[in-house]
Design a protein that fits this description.
Blueprint: H1 13-35, H2 42-53, E1 58-61, H3 68-79, E2 83-87, H4 94-98, E3 99-105, E4 111-117, E5 124-128, H5 135-147, E6 149-152, E7 155-158, E8 164-169, H6 182-185, E9 190-193, H7 199-209, H8 223-235, H9 240-252, H10 260-265, E10 266-268, H11 272-288, H12 296-307, E11 312-313, H13 315-319, H14 324-336
Parallel strand pairs: 1-8, 1-9, 2-5, 5-8
Antiparallel strand pairs: 3-4, 6-7, 10-11
InterPro entries: ATPase_AAA-3, CbbQ/NirQ/NorQ/GpvN, ChlI/MoxR_AAA_lid, P-loop_NTPase
GO molecular function, one term: hydrolase activity
Protein name: MoxR-like ATPase
């Protein structure tokens, strides 16, 4: 899945509990700080933060004007990460993301190439409207998301750690968009659906953002602390019951694995990366909710953001008006039993 691994030695159980309790208070402070600026949208904030805490990337899907960009910049501030933003357009070139080589000439007339880093060299990269760029440009981002380095003119350049891509995409079928290929979608740990705000939240937005001063967020942790929390999440124990539920959910979403609804409606299902994503995000969600161990509820709650971009329906299921979400909610019910 391309998530950075830690070189730290594993902690023993007592140390894990002590570290987890410190992480719980950090995460609670992060949630409170983000809540000062982003009204409502608890689920969106939670899922986006879970992706980052788990060390992965997230794809935010929603119509324009729902504060997706604002959420990403707020997260950058609160988590103490250096951020860059790239607005994807049809004429964007790979070098506009990765960087380019320029020729320098010294006083003696000797020429040499120097690499000028592109905006991808950031700890938190916002890829805005990622489906507007050509497949060639999309795939330039793909290598960095998977391998945490880029290659320009045969030279390898490592990206900073931590490195997270939060991409946004419009759900509307619009002119001049290139849908992301399956291989690229699979690189996103979670797909976060950004829906219209509830009435009370929308009232808060109206009152809170049209006055003279707007609320701003402050930093809660820094990049080094984020890496510590990510390392802790990878060391949290997961019970056999939860591991079995993950395997059962992921396998039941694949055609030909004995689930009648899946066999009838699903063209292709999630690969092993989906199980890895569930393992990591369930631990992160437990901490986020103030618990020290993941439960079956975590798996059921994460089924949709983890699976929906990793499977596709058959033509006949789409013709009947079925959605991937309908299929997943049926499968998730079986997790809770």
């Amino acid at each position: 899945m391309g998530v950075m691994t830690s070189t730290e030695t594993p902690l023993d159980e007592k140390a894990i509990i002590a570290s987890a309790e410190k992480a719980l208070s950090d995460i609670a402070a992060i949630r409170a700080e983000v809540g000062k600026v982003i009204f409502g949208q608890e689920q969106v904030v939670e899922n986006t933060l879970l992706a980052v805490l788990s060390g992965g990337h997230a794809l935010l899907v929603g119509v324009p004007g729902l504060a997706k960009t604002k959420l990403v910049t707020t997260l950058g501030t609160v988590l103490g990460l250096d951020g860059n933003r790239i607005q994807f357009t049809p004429d964007l070139m790979p070098s506009d993301i990765l960087g380019t080589e320029v020729m320098d000439q010294d006083d003696n007339g000797r020429r040499s190439f120097r690499f000028v880093k592109g905006p991808v060299f950031a700890q938190l990269l916002m890829a805005d409207e990622i489906n507007r760029a050509s497949p060639r440009t999309q795939s330039a981002l793909l290598q960095s998301m998977q391998e945490y380095h880029v290659t320009v003119a045969g030279q390898r350049y490592d990206l900073p750690g931590p490195f997270h891509v939060l991409a946004t995409q419009n759900p509307l079928e619009q002119e001049g968009t290139y849908p992301l290929p399956e291989a690229q979608l699979d690189r996103f740990l979670l797909q976060v659906d950004v829906l219209y705000p509830e009435l009370d939240a929308e009232r808060q937005i109206l009152l809170g953002t049209t006055g003279i001063s707007e609320a701003t967020a402050s930093g809660v942790i820094d990049a080094a602390r984020l890496l510590e929390i990510q390392s802790l999440i990878r060391q949290m124990p997961v019970s056999d019951k939860v591991v079995d539920a993950i395997l059962s959910l992921v396998r039941s979403a694949r055609p030909g694995h004995g689930n009648t609804m899946t066999d009838r409606h699903v063209a292709w299902g999630p690969g092993p990366r989906a199980g890895q994503a569930l393992m990591l995000c369930a631990r992160a969600r437990a901490l986020y909710e103030g618990r020290l161990a993941p439960s079956l509820d975590d798996i059921a709650a994460l089924a949709e953001p983890v699976l929906q971009h990793r499977m596709a329906l058959t033509f006949s299921a789409r013709a009947e008006g079925m959605t991937v979400r309908d299929v997943i909610s049926g499968l998730a019910k079986q997790v809770r039993g």
